[in-house]
Amino acid sequence: MIDTHCHINFDSYDEDRAAVLQRAVDAGVTRIIIPAVDIETSREIVKMVTTHGGLYGAVGIHPNSTADFTETMLAEIETLAAQPKIISIGEIGLDYYWDKSPKEKQFQAFEAQLALASQLELPVIIHNRQANEDTISILETWAKGLTGSLKDRPGVMHSFSGTAAIAERALACGFYLGFTGPITYKNADETRRIAAAVPLDRLLVETDGPFLTPVPHRGKRNEPAHIPLIVERLAGVTQSTPEEMARIATENAVRLFQLN
Fold first, then answer.
1. Could you count the other beta carbons within 10 Å of the beta carbon of residue 125?
2. How confident is the model at residue 260, as a pLDDT?
3. Do 157 and 176 touch, CB atoms closer than 8 A?
4. Other C-beta atoms lying within 10 Å of the C-beta of residue 107
């Protein structure tokens, strides 16, 4: 299995990162994709993925880190994206929940990084929090101009929490939908209904560790070893077995990110 979104570089893992990675392997999670949130974490991830065979990275500027976005930052992201085992631009997008960056700067950074992704032919990892309409409108415009292999694998809507209508529009653009711990929560019936309607070949599983811990570990730090809990819940809503869902989600991640 592949955890397609885990911030394993965050300091909450500093004291036991090796043990966390070993628990992931023991649980059947052999590969982890680490998304960046700013220039510093982008640099950090480039270094980290070279030291562990099962780690891959994404580089980019998270919307909450875009207040001081510049063309110089974009140029560095381009340079970092050329490094070995960097397989995506992300996480990028829009966030209207936190008031950490003006919308104009979020738009500027989002659109510039989307353009870079198309130039480099790298899929994107999309962060969308309480910005459904603006996020999907920008992505629809961007996706129309894609050519080559990226047209069929533009990226993933990370930790999908939008409406069924947004899911349909994202799927129409070619996007995959990633599901995280909240799909296991008691009050997540709508998320489960949406997941059940997603074509099997567009589903991904993520932890978003250290956040969004699934039941029965909710309230504790999340980690990649919890991926089987998300797989099991997705299997239930898609009327497949956990083994089938694990295989499908793994094949989807390999195809999207062009992993070996």
1. 30
2. 82
3. yes
4. 16
Decide: helix, strand or coil at residue 128: strand
Q: Of 7, 25, 5, 29, which is closest to residue 246 (Cα–Cα)?
A: 29
pLDDT digits (tens, 9 = 90+) for 83-128: 999 999 999 999 999 989 999 999 999 999 999 999 999 999 999 9
Q: Do residues 222 and 229 make contact, with C-beta atoms less than 8 angstroms apart? A: no
**Mind listing the pLDDT tens digit for each residue in 53-70?**
999 999 999 999 999 999
Q: How many CB atoms lie within 10 A of CB 22?
A: 12
Is the pTM higher than 0.90? yes
Rounded Cα–Cα distance for residues 37 and 186 (Å): 30
Q: How far is CA 71 from CA 92, 134, 141, in A?
A: 15, 22, 22
Please tell me the distance from the alpha carbon of residue 212 to that of residue 7, in angstroms, as a whole number. 12
Q: Which listed CATH number (3.20.20.140, 3.90.550.10, 3.30.70.20, 3.20.20.220) goes with 2-257?
A: 3.20.20.140
Q: How many CB atoms lie within 10 A of CB 179?
A: 28
